[in-house]
Amino acid sequence: MKTVSRVLNHEPNVSEETRRRVEEAVARLQYRPNPSARTLAGRRSYLVAMLYDNPSSNYLMEVELGVLDACQSQHYNMMLAPLVYDAKDIVAKVEVLVVQSRVDGVVLTPPITDDQALLRRLDELGVPYASVSPKEENRRIGVIVDERRAAAEIVGHLASLGHTRIAHIKGHPAHGASGWRLEGYREGLARAGLRYEPALVVDGEFSYDSGYVATNALLDLARPPTAIFAANDDMAAGAICAICERGLSVPRDVSVCGFDDTPIARHIYPALTTVRQPTREMGRLAALELLKAIRKPGSGGMVEVPYTLQLRRSTGPAPA
Amino acid sequence: MKTVSRVLNHEPNVSEETRRRVEEAVARLQYRPNPSARTLAGRRSYLVAMLYDNPSSNYLMEVELGVLDACQSQHYNMMLAPLVYDAKDIVAKVEVLVVQSRVDGVVLTPPITDDQALLRRLDELGVPYASVSPKEENRRIGVIVDERRAAAEIVGHLASLGHTRIAHIKGHPAHGASGWRLEGYREGLARAGLRYEPALVVDGEFSYDSGYVATNALLDLARPPTAIFAANDDMAAGAICAICERGLSVPRDVSVCGFDDTPIARHIYPALTTVRQPTREMGRLAALELLKAIRKPGSGGMVEVPYTLQLRRSTGPAPA
DNA sequence: CTGAAAGCGCTAACAC
DNA sequence: GTGTTAGCGCTTTCAG
């Protein structure tokens, strides 16, 4: 019996001959190990959890699918753990999860990626974790995009269209992405030889409504911008709405671009110029690195994936 | 020990006093039963799977959250089973799932709700299932909305605005919803005393692009419609794009309405008049009925949930 | 390299 | 109403 167990778990100390015979029998009998018995007896659960906040976004659905891809390919199960990110009980919740479900590892998505208390506790518990787009500080295992460079590039695109007054709507302050995109904005401006003007940078929080509000503030300026770089697509959609409501036209009067390339980018009119992140692939790669670390502690690392600029109809030449 | 087990599983034959004391101890010790041990010893897995196709929609993400709500509240786990709905290997895939993961039940979403071969096999295996918006034929356990009445009502709204040439873009033929919405369209027309005109009904498949294409066909008609009822929001968004591209305005020249009230409905310009389904609640209720059936075979039923009309800016008076 | 023995934490079946 | 006993199907430990 133990020999069969060894073969199934790819453990050493089985003769080639025995291994072959076991495998033949497994195939013939269509034998499938019982996951619960494995979990109960062993110390692995073959289960990883995906922790996330803000459940209703397309972004997360994509990441989730990627994580699922990776797990299924390695005969792991995935469980979902939506958490309300308010930093109070989050550590306790995760503890319950780890203790009760005995998860072998977790995938973190922003902004949970950057909860220091949680990361510390996970380290203490010895639970490996992979992060999707974490802030600089905990770059250990996971996947990342050079968002700063992407933002600089899209701002460069705006500048190349002749825009000189380019505004930026910031993202939610708890997300690392907001910082990178702002830095990229400034970098893009600098490269194009444009001056950074604080009045053209307004707060947002990644929601449609915040984009709408922020844009109205920008359009009320004595010298309003001719282009707006919103830190994500939802806010860009809100910006377009605010612009249209004033009887202005996108991109004739104001150009707008976003970030993420969620489905909404293609579904609004005019279609949005934005930065595409390979979200599903990111989930897959993060999970794959996590699984490496689960198998062999210390292995797994940070992988960087490429972005692509999606030039569509929401950006055009600066008005004369 | 067994007494504790009884309390935790809400089984009968425990005195109120004992039950209370056990619960107190559970709370004090933060005791959490081990799912694997339960599964191994008992015949239940405390696991339900959600089967779905077409993973990248907001609709599914919402349903998923609802199912998760219900499962968590009853200490069940949920697993995701994305399936490519092409009716060939779907039965085999589900068999593996049921046999290997020993799921106690499954939640079905359209169009998987209506795969007769799958339903038959599930019945044979004795695996209970709940369906979200299934076609008439398998109304056993699940949740449903009176989509037909909703469609009739929204068409009535269009008629009350003075529209007499109201077009309809149909949904994907494999979905029961497409049929109901078409019926509702005809019913709404009839009630308003308007004639049903086959030329004003065009095919779609629930995608943005199909709505765009369909709308162009409608606008090319000798006598184009002044209002379009698209069978879902994505197609309505495509319709708005097609209309805007011709230099026409929504709702001044053409009114547009959709169905579902997904986030895109609020995020496009102008915001979409549509029918809101309580999607998350539907997932929750479907799962709850499933859990009833798991606990007590034969119980659980079909529950109907209310819809609400969301009147927004994409519909207005018929042009003079 | 192989296998026997002893559980993992729970529930089913059956006493009491 | 409550407790006892015997596993569920594996992995661990340790002896051969």
Automatic annotation (TrEMBL), chains A, B:
Residues 1-42 form the HTH lacI-type domain. The keyword Protein biosynthesis does not apply. The keyword Nucleotide-binding does not apply. One of its GO terms (molecular function) is DNA-binding transcription factor activity. This is LacI family transcriptional regulator. PROSITE patterns: HTH_LACI_2 (PS50932). It comes from Pseudoxanthomonas taiwanensis. InterPro entries: HTH_LacI (IPR000843), LacI/GalR-like_sensor (IPR046335), Lambda_DNA-bd_dom_sf (IPR010982), Peripla_BP_I (IPR028082). Transmembrane segments: none annotated. Signal peptide: none annotated. Pfam families: LacI, Peripla_BP_3. Keywords: DNA-binding, Transcription, Transcription regulation.
